[in-house]
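Subject: Sanity check before I submit

Could someone independently write out the structure tokens for this chain? I want to compare against mine line by line before I put it in a report. The sequence has 335 residues.
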Amino acid sequence: MSSYNIALNFEDGVTRFIQCGSQEKVLDAAYRHQINLPMDCSDGVCGTCKCRAESGEYELIDDYIDEALTEDEAEQGLVLTCQMIPQTDCVIQVPVTSTMCKIAIAQFTGTVTEVRTHADAAYELDIQVTEQDAVFLAGQYVNITVPGSAEHRSYSFSSAPADTVLSFLIKQVPNGLMSTWLESAAAGQELQLTGPLGSFYLRAVTRPLLFLAGGTGLAPFLSMLAVLKEQGCTQPVHLIYGVTRDQDLVLVEQLQAYAQALPNFSFSTTVSDSESTHPNTGYVTHHLEPAMLHDGNVDVYLCGPPPMVDAVSEYFQSHSFTPANFYYERFIPSV
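---
Independent answer below. Compare away.
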């Protein structure tokens, strides 16, 4: 019997992946994996197991009552996991925390394979893991424990899901705990990771996409682009990549490669330093053009530092612009 990968994303950003048989109900598969999804009756009567299917195809068994799941709710993607049988891989948003379902965040070990340095701007860190541990949603992050300490740092995956070499783009922070360790890190060293985590991930693509990346906030978009390349994408996708200094523009060659591989993908870059010699200067909001906004019929994804997130939000408000969906991730480099 064939099975499908089901990603359960909980309210606190914790994600767990389970295997669900082609004739198996999601609720039953979750319990088989010792994940106690909300449930009272398991018969389609109470509605306690109601979740949202964000992507994938599935069948809802007709053995439930309208009070548990109305026709309008079903059309909006709400499902009863006790009546849901997947027909493809699916992503399900669970409206409770992971702790309420009595699950712990996954922990695993990886081995450093390579560290690459981009001047004083960023590091690229590659970590070898098992196939079982290389599961996440494009856009999510993981916590990495800094060797020799009890502290961790959070970094978004820049590699594609299912790739057993996990890649991360890490901002160089003077005297930063992880930056200091990376200065002398070598292949073969082991790292402890916890995750995947986060509610910032690529949803099903049903309309144009606008990606806004600030600095090393480029990382999750590289993962998303890898997924779009693999799955194919007929919708237009544009990315604006903004940085502070010229030398902070890293991995542009990867964006160029994606522009060649994805016919509907384009990107632009900008540097905010007023003394920059880059063709485009200023902030990301200075380069938002009407064609990119599609009169609101666009899903906007933003990953960058808090001032950038605030600036984009204020831009939308001041221009009375409301995108179909607006997903964002704030990050603050830690010393």
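---
OP: Matches mine. For the report I'm noting this point. The first helix runs from residue 26 to 32.
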